[in-house]
Amino acid sequence: MRICGIKLTHDGAVALVEDGQLVFCLEQEKRDNNRRYQAIDHLESVVSALAEHGLDPRDVDQFVIDGWDGDLESQFQVLSGAGPITLKGAPYVERHAEGLLTSLDGSGLMLGGRLFSYRSYPHVTGHVTSAYCTSPFAKTEQPAFCLVWDGCIFPRLYYVERRGARFLECLFPVIGHVYAAAGHHFGPYKRAGRGDWDLGVAGKLMAYIALGSVDEDIVAVFQELYQERFAGDTELASHYRADINSAEPLLARVHDFFEASALRLRDQAPEDVLASFHHFLERLLVSEMATAVERHAHLSGARNLCIAGGCGLNIKWNSALREAGLFDAVWVPPFPNDSGSAIGAACSAMVVQDGFVPLDWSVYSGPALLDGQLPSGWNSEPCSMRKLASILASNKPVIFLTGRAELGPRALGGRSILAAATSPEMKDYLNDVKLREHFRPVAPICLEDRAPEIFSPGTPDPYMLFDHQTRAEWRDKVPAVVHLDGSARLQTISRTSEHKVAELLIEYEKLTGIPLLCNTSANHHGRGFFPGAAAACRWGQIEHIWSDGVLLTKIPETELSPVDGALTLV
């Protein structure tokens, strides 16, 4: 059974699941240096994704389109061949508590000149199925709660077991976009108007709040306005909650909330305001989750939690939920945001057929490296891991490209810029070449068995989804990966992993005694990962590029000769 999941809107992607195994997931932003959050505007992208894996649309048994905005259904305007077509989809949220797996059946999906039927499940359904089916709980057939907190919805709690899933309740009336909206009203990303929405602001604020301090007086202002405008028994709050299924009015009310906050907090430092708002939301999330778990204590099974939706990328909230003692285990997939929605669409159809069974998957299921002609001005030679480790030990960063790209928004060693963490200047250098603000952190990638020695808790974290503190005795040893508040967005990898980055870390550890490196995404500013070495060479900001055993070194301009021609990396 081949199921093709399609996410058409932002974070567009195509995924294929065959007999319970993820074959691939190709995110649009990781193809051809596309912009971050790229949508699928032309259905030829689906045909091309299948063709790259030797498949024709006729080889697919079922197509599934991820649902989107709408009370009863959604609509998508896309191109197919030479002209536009309109496709219908399921709504953002299921229509009733037992309706998570209710599909809208559609026709008119034009692929390769042929028409195909398809199904569409609500957008939140894909979040629930992708989170649970990739979790360790699915493998052991344990039930789990699933928290879905996405941009346009209140945090929604579901209960999942092998035979089905159902909606339990909304935890509190705040949409996920509230975090990014805070950044549009305070701090370095403040805007004069309400338009020009930036999906990337939420992640940047996680870094910025380390500049500030939590002030309980500021928290009290947010608490008061929350009751008045969102949660309380007031006319304003009732009007806000009446628009629960309409994204634009909800977002307008959020902007009203922050404009009222700004009037009360005009004399406060923006970094303190944002740090306090983060703390207010974190406290609210943990408190309401605790109440909900107690309310549903009659549900059988272990206390497990899956987290999905864009808010699942907030490592501090994930850690707060894990540390609250409410659950035996917490799982966040590497693609909790919409980058996992194509996988979720395919998983939804799998679940309808087989129940909530585990998906056989690897995080390195993205696009393969593209071959291509390299620009002139680069030398090429074979390079062992030991030699590459020595280059890194000499404090020179390296673009590291290997195998298939990682899924989700974070570089996990397949499309990374790696560097020694021993110099405090390295973080600023990497932020400079990537056009990032200097308060932004650079993540460590560390051998799993040594992580507890360096970080607290230092528990396995293969996808950079929890918060860790750098232990005091290591902060001066690896300053480039220590954030302003002492934290680190850690990625761990087992030394028995077959991935090339593990082999490199072992060689680097042998040379230096240090089991970690700086790790940041190999990409242009505002773009997805480099699709291959040629794109990294054209960027030209890092002088060493390692691509599956080949080292490319930029020739200094003073050494270039007129006969230096282009190379082809194959």
From TrEMBL:
Top-level taxon: Bacteria
- Please list the GO terms describing molecular function: transferase activity
One short Pfam name that applies is Carbam_trans_C
Q: Where is the Carbamoyltransferase domain positioned along the sequence?
A: 2-347
Q: Which Gene3D superfamilies match?
A: 3.30.420.40, Carbamoyltransferase, C-terminal domain (3.90.870.20)
Q: Identify this protein by name.
A: Nodulation protein NodU
Stretches assigned to the Carbamoyltransferase C-terminal domain: 389-536
The gene is nodU
Q: Which SUPFAM superfamilies match?
A: Actin-like ATPase domain (SSF53067)
Q: Work out whether the entry's keyword set contains Calcium.
A: no
* EC number(s) recorded for this UniProt protein: 2.1.3.-
